[in-house]
Each structure stands twice: as C-alpha cells, then as structure tokens.
Amino acid sequence: MTMRCLMSLIKNSRGASALEFALVVPGLVFLLNGIAQLGIVYFANAGLNDALAAGSRYLTLHRYDKDDFPTAGELEVWIKDRKWGLDPDNLTISSTSVSTAANGSRFVDITMGYDVTLNFIFIDVDPIELSQTRRAYIYADSAPAA
To answer: Residue 143 has what DSSP assignment?
Structure first.
C-alpha cells in the first residue's frame, strides 16, 4: 500500500507549475528591481551632466571683469534652484577660483557630486557617488597677452 501511494505521488504532476512559479518569481523580482535601480543611476547621471553643463554656461555668459560675475555661492544657489531631477540635499558643488591658462584664457573648474541612494529589496547598499568636472572658459576684456 505504501509503495503504491509513493508511486502515485511520483507520477502525479499537479502543482508542478505552481512550484516552478514559486521558485522563479523571487529571482525575477530581484532582476527587475536591479534594472530599475540601474535606470535610477543613469537618470541621476544625466541630470548631473545637464546641471554641470548649465552651470558652466551660466559662468561663461557672465564677463569676469564686470561686477555681476557670480561667486561660488551664487553659482551653487543658481544650480540648486533649478530642477534637474536631482535632490538638492544630495548635490555638492565646488568651483575653483578664476585661473589663467598658459595661453592667457581664463577659466573656472566646476566639480559636482551626487549621492544616489538605491533601494534594493531586503538588501542595504551604500549610496553610489557620482562626480563630474567641467571647465568653463570666461570672457574678459582685460585678458593678459599670451
């Protein structure tokens, strides 16, 4: 009797699909979540790149020898006031003072960093730190001769 019950259980395939589904779904959920988190990182990188380009353009459009040339603090406020899809609390902006290149042109190096917080299911990960630097060349009437 016991052998016959055991053989009937082995031959019975009812519920096999439910078992396979239960084994595969957690992996698929983690995979889809990972793809979504990767998209969040790419979105943050694109926003950081756009913010950096706009900040460089903002400095380039102001003349260095005029009184309205923005300070580092004004540049930071200008960038953080605009919406780039980034959380302003996670955005760090640093700019060097105006420097002169060997050919006599003036420039400012702007470095921006952004911490992307990822949300994996049941897994705690450290934020990813994105950083980019761009050089903004500045126009001035009184540029030194090369």
So the answer is: P
Rounded Cα–Cα distance for residues 84 and 76 (Å): 13
Which amino acid makes up residue 57?
R
**Helix, strand, coil proportions of the chain in percent (round to 5)?**
45, 20, 30
Closest CA to 132 of 92, 96, 100: 92
Distance CA 44, CA 51 (A): 10
Q: CA torsion angle for 75, 80, 81, 83 (degrees, to 10)?
A: 130
The whole-model pTM stands at 0.77
Q: What is the pLDDT of residues 82-129, one digit of tens each?
A: 878 888 899 999 887 888 888 888 888 999 999 999 988 888 889 999
